[in-house]
């Protein structure tokens, strides 16, 4: 430490002395003493104090290593445009595929929904068995299928053979109880009355004769076999029910029997047999 003080005193003395104006040469660098404080940190060493070789190595560490030119992939603007086009094409294809799949899924859903509604309708729809349907088209009298069904004014329906037999039985009983009853006479008078060019006087005569004959020999009362309602008009054939009967028979592998007609024989004034025009003309003369 005494050397440091002497150095400071020497420096002060030198700084206090006036600059010499002599023409002597400046002192050498070896004769100059650099004063520094003991408290200064060594970390404030100027950068220029580092050796040149050390500084060059430090600079090289901060630089990135340049790869060889063979490893560099050059991308031009045309390549970027091609890549964008490819991506756009792939995107369009993907969207089209998704739309097709979505449409297919919607169609499948619609098909399944329609099938479900159809099955539900079939389950809720009232059904009837073939045996029940066969019972509905069966005649109450003969318990056979009504191949030729006829409906009476009361609404009951029977097959033609059964109704014919029923009316024949009624007519036979009436003739037995009224031997002078002759329906052919009244039928002939009515036919003449309904003819063309009948004079008014003759028409009144025929009407009076018909009324007298019906009063003296009233016609039989044909009734319904079920409810006994008097039938004043001819039975009417039900063609719709006739078609249903044939469909049921086809389902049961049955064939329609040969049509049978049994109507009473009507007679003219001379007593000749006159074939009726319809199956019920012998029971209900046309008036």
TrEMBL record:
The keyword tRNA processing does not apply. Residues 7-23, 253-265 have a biased composition (Polar residues). Residues 50-62 have a biased composition (Basic residues). Keywords: Coiled coil, Metal-binding, Zinc, Zinc-finger. Residues 1-65, 253-287 are annotated as: Disordered. InterPro entries: Znf_C3HC4_RING-type, Znf_RING, Znf_RING/FYVE/PHD, Znf_RING_CS. Residues 139-228 form the RING-type domain. Pfam families: zf-C3HC4 (PF00097). Residues 95-122 form a coiled coil. Signal peptide: none annotated. GO terms for molecular function: zinc ion binding. This is RING-type domain-containing protein. It comes from Postia placenta MAD-698-R-SB12.
